[in-house]
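Dear support,

I submitted the protein below through the web form. The confirmation email said the job was done, but the results page showed an empty box. After a refresh the structure appeared. I'm attaching both so you can tell me whether what I see now is the final result or a partial one.
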Amino acid sequence: MEQSLRIAAQQLLGETIQAYNVNTLSIGRRLGGLYEHNGKRCAIGRIMTDEALKMITTEAKGESQNVEQLLQRYGSMIIIDKWKPLAEDHDGRKFLMRLQAFHDMADNWNELGVSSNGAVKALEIMQGVYHMEPSFV
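What the results page shows now:
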């Protein structure tokens, strides 16, 4: 992963940590893919354009799709410009999948925000990002 993408990944992880606590997550496993639920967006839903979110929610109709499936089906055009480079990079997509999994694990969160377990997981995610080899074209 290129350095600029590593910095973007670190920034997005930080913003994700700041955005959530146990009460603000968009999780509802029995309902299928919840990119948005009751006005709350999941980690990937937060970086989708409003138009893409509406389109995917309408088309999915309870069908659960992970980040990779979404990007394969719709392409990076569903992601806001700021984060699009992560969605267009192989390792960036891996990071986005880890980010969504981090969001979805309830024990990563408490009333105040990220739990001690979540802090360890976040560190593991960033260590993984910094151990990825730079991409060469």
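Response: this is the final, complete result; the empty box was a page-load delay. The helical segments are 3-19, 50-60, 67-74, 84-87, 90-104, 116-131.
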